[in-house]
Amino acid sequence: MKIIAYYLPQYHPIRENNEWWGPGFTEWTNVGKARKYYRDHYQPKIPKDLGYYDLRIPEVRLQQAELAREAGVDAFCYWHYWFGNGRRLLEMPFNEVLRTGEPDFPFCLGWANESWKAKVWDFNSTKRDRTLMEQLYPGEQDYIDHFYALLDAFRDKRYFRKNNRPIFVVYKPFLLPDPALFMLIWNKLAVKEGISDGFHFVGHTEKTKDVDSLLNMGFNAVNIVRNGEYAHNPHLIKKILIPTIKYKVFKQPLKIDYALMIKYFVQSKEKEANIYPSIIPNWDHTPRSGRKGSVFHNSTPELFAEHAQEVLDAVSHKEKEDQIVFLKSWNEWGEGNYMEPDLKFGKQYIEVLGKIRKEYENK
User: Fold this and answer.
1) pLDDT band for position 121 (50/70/90)?
2) Cα–Cα distance between 312 and 354 in angstroms, integer?
3) Residue from 282, 285, 287, 314 nearest 299 by CA
4) Which end of the chain is more exposed for a tag (fewer CB within 10 A), N or C?
5) pLDDT in tens, 190-242
6) Once rounded to an integer, what is the mean pLDDT over residues 326-335?
7) By the 8 A CB rule, do 327 and 4 touch?
8) Dihedral of CA 263/264/270/271: which sign?
9) pLDDT score for 232
10) What local confidence, expressed as pLDDT, does residue 361 receive?
């Protein structure tokens, strides 16, 4: 069984963020100014063991890997930004991981292929829908350039593979103008450069109805992340009618009990061989979205343990190489979606997952 944790590199200042939001802006800016929107709202969320870290510091990256090992995580999936025509952002932390060889911890890459909008980072922006960085798809040569920009990563002994094929996640697969062409080009280049006989492409989605379409496009597998299930499941929609009314009429965040949500995170589809379920420890988008955000209220280590157990049970019957689970996420603090220690729970989420993982290893 393998657990792959999504990893956000938005914790160091870059020139573009300085220009858009002011000197020194990182994701911590949103995390630090988060406010309570109801009486027992758990905000602000304050990091504990690692503090408000800066990913330019190598010791931080080493500590993250040690905590991930403790949690039973097998690899980080670093979110990677390629906006077309060679334009990249936030690449420094992963480039340092690649250059230094540290941490000695497996990894793969996920292409976060969407335009950056102002509303993603600041709900008070006067021009919330303005585009900060547009995602472009210039054509075949750009796919080739993209591959070669990452070639050293694919050759790295730490790169995480399934059946000797490097795993590569596409965040918004339906935005690709020709996903089959993209995957064909990369598979041919993988063979040409002696990387493997091709990639193991994983399409990312929140919706069960997308699965067959993604597999028909040529994706080898699908990762379902059901943090948006409240918008897609008619049975759940009925159960959150009152929170929805408060959200739409009284402009309160969409507050849904985590205990309710975890009943819908794993469904029958996730038990299929090429469908990879997700472990979701928590969710609170209000630091980024304010009153427009959604909150999985009252996530606790005990409830998380129930959820994580169900996810691992869902894949335990599969063939060994298909027992893959994604963890969303390792450090999405601005979305209240993280495993790293905080002041309220310390390392309890890490300890819970690590314990469950060990129990499976000992079976």
Assistant:
1) low
2) 12
3) 282
4) C
5) 999 999 999 999 999 999 999 999 999 999 999 999 988 888 888 899 999 99
6) 98
7) yes
8) positive
9) 85
10) 85
Residue 23: is the preceding peptide bond cis (ω within 30°)?
no
Question: How far is it, in rounded angstroms, from Cα 7 to Cα 165?
Answer: 21
> Helices 348-361 and 58-70, interaxial angle, to 10°?
50
260-313 pLDDT per residue, tens:
999 999 999 999 999 999 999 999 999 999 999 999 999 999 999 999 999 999
Residue ranges of E strands in the chain: 2-7, 75-80, 107-111, 116-117, 131-133, 161-162, 165-170, 200-205, 221-224, 254-257, 275-276, 278-279, 294-297, 324-327, 331-332, 337-338
Strand runs (DSSP E) across 179-265, as ranges? 200-205, 221-224, 254-257
Q: What is the mean pLDDT of the chain?
A: 95
How many other CB atoms sit within 10 Å of the CB of residue 257? 17
The torsion angle over the Cα atoms of residues 329, 335, 336 and 339, rounded to 10 degrees, is 20
Domains and CATH numbers, the chain: 2-361 (3.20.20.80)
Instruction: Using only the alpha carbons of the chain, give its radius of gyration.
Output: 20
Tens-place pLDDT, residues 136-147: 999 999 999 999
Residue 217: alpha-carbon gap to chain centroid = 22
**Which three-class secondary structure state does DSSP give residue 259?**
helix
DSSP 311: H
For the segment 91-115, the average pLDDT, to the nearest whole number, is 98
Q: Position 290: which residue type?
A: G
What are the tokens at 249? 């009429």
Concatenated DSSP letters of 21-34: H-TT--HHHHHHT-
Global pTM reads 0.96
- Distance of alpha carbon 85 from alpha carbon 83, whole angstroms: 7
Count other Cβ atoms within 10 Å, centred on residue 282: 26
